[in-house]
């Protein structure tokens, strides 16, 4: 399984520690609430809200270097509106790995 990493963050920040800290603060602040919105929408079976939550989360997936995860999230976002939940478990594993990774930063 693909693991979160700092490769994109490092290339984006190019050594600017202040920018890196701001970026990480935004991710650490927004990710938990966006993840909660996803799970609440999933529980309520609100397809539009699920898709919107996936859309927001997929950008953080990308920032944490999860290229395959981003592709899966994009596919899941498109399929969810057709009530296709086939990628939910894989997507949620990505969210779990991100949660654990963010604890280390």
What's this entry about, in short?
The protein is an all-alpha fold and 105 residues long. The protein has 5 helices and no strands. The longest helix has 28 residues.
Produce the secondary structure layout.
Blueprint: H1 7-13, H2 17-44, H3 47-63, H4 67-80, H5 88-104
Fold and architecture overview:
The structure is a single chain. The chain has 105 residues and is mostly helical. It is 79% helix and 0% strand. The chain contains five helices and no strands. It has helices at residues 7-13, 17-44, 47-63, 67-80, 88-104. It is elongated and about 45 Å long. 22% of the residues are buried. This is HPt domain-containing protein. The modification Phosphohistidine is found at residue 55.
Looking at this protein, list some descriptive labels.
single chain, Four Helix Bundle (Hemerythrin (Met), subunit A), HPt domain-containing protein, protein kinase activity, phosphoprotein, HPT_dom_sf
Rg from alpha-carbon coordinates: 14 Å
Portion of residues in beta strands equals: under 5%
Helix percent reads over 70%
End-to-end CA span: 20 Å
Q: What class, by secondary structure content?
A: mainly alpha
CATH architecture title: Up-down Bundle
**Regarding CATH, which class?**
Mainly Alpha
Number of helices: 5
Mean pLDDT: 97
Query: Helix and strand succession?
Result: HHHHH
Residue ranges: pLDDT <50 for 5 or more in a row?
A: none
Q: What would you call the shape?
A: elongated
Largest sheet: none
Count of extended strands = 0
CATH topology: Four Helix Bundle (Hemerythrin (Met), subunit A)
The overall number of domains is 1
Protein name: HPt domain-containing protein
Modified residues (Phosphohistidine): 55
Keywords: Phosphoprotein
GO molecular function, one term: protein kinase activity
């Amino acid at each position: 399984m693909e693991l979160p990493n700092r490769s994109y963050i490092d290339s984006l920040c190019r050594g600017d520690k202040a920018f890196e800290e701001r970026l990480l603060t935004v991710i650490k602040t927004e990710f938990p609430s966006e993840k909660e919105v996803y799970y609440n929408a999933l529980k309520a079976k609100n397809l539009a809200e699920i898709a919107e939550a996936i859309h927001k989360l997929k950008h953080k997936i990308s920032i944490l270097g999860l290229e395959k995860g981003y592709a899966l999230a994009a596919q899941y976002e498109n399929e969810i509106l057709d009530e296709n939940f086939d990628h939910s478990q894989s997507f949620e594993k990505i969210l779990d790995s991100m949660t654990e990774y963010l604890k280390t930063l």
